[in-house]
Specification:
single chain; 219 residues; mainly beta; five-stranded mixed β-sheet; four-stranded antiparallel β-sheet; 15 strands; 0% helix; elongated
Length: 219
Amino acid sequence: DTCVNAGDSLNFQVTATDPDGDIVTLSATGSPFLQDVSPAIMTPDNPVTGNINAIGKFKWKTECSHVLKNPHPVYFKAIDHDPQVTLSSYKTLYIKVVGPAPQNPMAVPLGNSILLSWEQNNCENVKGYNIYRKKSFFGFIPAHCEIGVPEYTGYTKIAQVDGISNLSYTDDGDGNGLVHGIQYCYMITAIYPDGVEGYATEEVCALLKRDLPIITNVS
């Protein structure tokens, strides 16, 4: 239903209304309330009771440890206090916590290869990085909840770098060297503990320098 960047807060109001005018009790359970670090809360109480309307505020300061492949479910339950028949209603909300992208990517030509570098984001649970390449600029801007690098961009994953502190990669075309005259563009994503990717970096592009003689014809 919604996404939140790890480290940001998610706050919204929840209201349960009884059309018959009964007293209503609203409660919330689910994964965000069970986190060891920075669990979600409902204010002023969980459950909260009100006359006709029960109004609570969901508050969750997300952390990098909350980044998971599957979304966090939140289950809201409302019960009226009718003396004859007690009725209840349920609503489920799914919240996906997304890992931030690596910072300040750079692509620098070096001989017949391109040296990529980037900076670590604020998440210390990153396990590595995925490197994507395309032979032209696309202009990709991730939509809300659009993680990784989607296929429609034309980018291909060319490498995976393991370890949070490994912040560079040399693209030499699998040892064959890259081709002069082609614009090579890259995006990088961080990999989190269960294999899920975060948001992609902005695109960075580079051309090989023509600072050496190039054989264009052999006879």
